[in-house]
Specification:
- The protein is of the alpha/beta class and about 280 residues long.
- The chain contains eleven helices and eight strands.
- It has helices at about 25-30, 45-50, 65, 80-90, 110-125, 140-145, 165, 175-190, 205-215, 235, 255-270; strands spanning about 35-40, 55-60, 95-100, 130-135, 150-155, 195-200, 220, 230.
- Strands 1-2-3-4-5-6-7-8 form an eight-stranded parallel barrel, surrounded by seven helices.
- Strand 3 (about 95-100), helix 5 (about 110-125) and strand 4 (about 130-135) form a beta-alpha-beta unit.
- The N and C termini lie far apart (about 55 Å).
- Bound molecules: 3-methyl-2-oxobutanoic acid.
- 3-methyl-2-oxobutanoic acid binds near residues 59, 101 and 200.
């Protein structure tokens, strides 16, 4: 089957001719009403499994600040920290589109800084696209990066890098003013040339309106079912994260429970001498 016919869907991996998800496939998915699926990933093991499972895109998010580096927010994350993670994800995938997140401080100074950061990610990691936060305020940066031939995924609604400016983890797009701002941001990033836009923590109705008004696909992170695709932080999604998780997260596994049980069993077997058994030993 030619690549053009089946870029998405559960049978996509059955097609050996399908080599790589491209940004044009995002557009086609929207036009054909086919949902796009994304997860974050920060290393090669999860990336390889998600790629094999047919996940369409992997975002090496600056959520690595929380999930990998143990910071409280994404604000301290640097380009130098994300580059090796992104390169590892790229090395692990055959099909998924890999998107590098531009961290706080790496594009706000203006279009020149934004383009330099995007070029570093493209050259040093082999990623296929970059993402940056902000609507109207980031439109000039997006435009410059796109003009250089680098695809950009935009990110509006709740933008974690501006958590303090927004006053905390607050749903965006509520009320007439909120909706107007969200629509202005959405149109600004589309006009700037973004190939898709993440809507984070936005009421479903207003996300639906944005999705209908835009020609580029919308990707929901807590923005409901009317968006063109869905994205989750994989450690939340797989039940690896313990503690409070956002309302929109559905946990598809209990990795924390599984790993804890395995670690307890291992410790008990080492302490009791059950492990290592003869089959785990080398002869002389
Ligand atoms: O860093 C990240 O994982 C993100 C997604 C939640 C959109 O930006």
């Amino acid at each position: 089957m030619p690549e053009e016919l089946a870029p998405y869907g559960s049978n996509a991996n059955a097609d050996p001719a399908l080599k790589r998800v491209r940004t044009r496939h995002f557009q086609r998915a929207k036009e054909n009403g086919i949902k796009i699926t994304g997860l974050t990933s920060y290393e090669c093991l999860s990336a390889s499994i998600f790629d094999d499972a047919g996940i369409d895109f992997l975002l090496v998010g600056d959520s690595a600040g929380n999930t990998v580096f143990g910071y409280d927010t994404t604000i301290p994350v640097t380009v130098d920290e994300l580059i090796p993670l992104t390169a590892a994800v790229v090395r692990a995938v055959n099909r998924a589109l890999v998107i590098a997140d531009m961290p706080f401080g790496s594009y706000e100074n203006g279009p020149d800084q934004a383009l330099s950061t995007a070029i570093r990610f493209m050259k040093e990691t082999g990623c296929h696209a970059v993402k940056c936060e902000g609507g109207v305020r980031s439109a000039k940066q997006i435009k410059r990066i796109v003009r250089a031939g680098i695809p950009v995924m935009a990110h509006i609604g709740f933008t974690p890098q501006s958590e303090h400016g927004l006053g905390g983890h607050i749903i965006q797009g509520r009320g007439d003013d909120g909706a107007e701002q969200l629509l202005a941001d959405a149109h600004a990033v589309e006009e700037a040339g973004a190939f898709a836009v993440v809507l984070e923590m936005v009421p479903s109705d207003i996300a639906g309106r944005v999705t209908r008004e835009l020609t580029i696909p919308t990707i929901s992170v807590g923005a409901g079912p009317q968006c063109d695709g869905q994205l989750m932080v994989w450690t939340d999604w797989a039940g690896f994260t313990t503690g409070r998780i956002p309302r929109f997260v559905k946990q598809y596994a209990d990795l924390a429970g599984t790993l804890r049980s395995a670690a307890v069993a291992y410790r008990e077997e080492v302490e009791s001498g059950v492990y290592p058994a003869p089959e785990h030993e080398y002869g002389a």
